[in-house]
Amino acid sequence: MKKIRTRKGFERLSASDVGKTMGKTAEGFTGNPDLPTPPVLPTDLFAKKDALDEAVIKADKGGVLATARKDALLGDGILTLNRNASYVDMECKNDLTILLSSGYEAVSTNRAQAVLNAPQILGVGNGQSGELKPRIKADKNTRSFVGRIKPIDGEYGATISFASSRKILFEGLTAGMKYVFQLMAIGGSTGQSDWSDPGSGMAQ
User: In 31-165, which residue ranges form alpha helices assigned H by DSSP?
Assistant: First the structure.
């Protein structure tokens, strides 16, 4: 019999999705008779989620210290999810129902049909005048991408499709204006990922 196990790779998730996963697993562990003693208890998971969610909001407004705090809490959240996932792998008795009751997902046997993670924005550069070119990390089975962009105090406009990560380029921007953007991966079992954490850059 093939051994089932939790789907990990949390380091590929956006900070927002790490927070969502901590919340989902906190709910799964709460009062769960099959998984009563995870290394990180539900009350602590909820607290870590709330702290990370707050840090994401503050980091989106800018600031080196706010970003550093978000990154530190993100690293702690990834470690937390990995610790509890290993506990579920050991204690679920190879029972998919018990594994899923924890709030974790099981490893898919069909790579093409796995749920896609949100793209991770690694940085942003300037192409020609009025352009921003993000650098991202995304799941290998992503078919294409969708993006959206806005001035930092504005509203998102229509979404833009990109055939591949190399083709992601926001054009027609106003030089000297700071913009915020997000990306979504297309493909996988649900058809698309969640939106990425916002990235930002100033058009030149």
Answer: 42-60, 64-91, 96-101
CA diameter of the chain: 60
* CB 181, CB 200: distance < 8 Å: yes
How long a stretch of residues is the chain?
Answer: 204
Residues 37 and 104: beta-carbon distance below 8 Å: no
**pLDDT tens-place string over residues 48-76:** 999 999 999 999 888 899 999 999 999 99
3-state secondary structure of 202: strand
- ∠ CA 107-101-91, rounded to 5°: 75
At 91, list the tokens. 């204690």
0.85 exceeded by pTM: no
Other beta carbons within 10 angstroms of residue 68's beta carbon come to 12
Total Cβ atoms within 10 A of residue 63? 12
Q: 103 and 29 in one domain?
A: yes
Q: Name the burial class of residue 129, with classes exposed (0-12), middle (13-18) and buried (19+) by CB atoms within 10 angstroms of its CB.
A: exposed
Q: Which of 107, 125, 141 is the last residue of a domain?
A: 107
Last residue of a domain, one of 65, 91, 107: 107
- What is the per-residue pLDDT across 87-136, written as a single tens digit (0 to 9) for each? 999 999 999 899 999 999 988 655 546 788 999 999 999 988 999 999 99
Do 40 and 80 form a contact (C-beta atoms < 8 A)?
yes
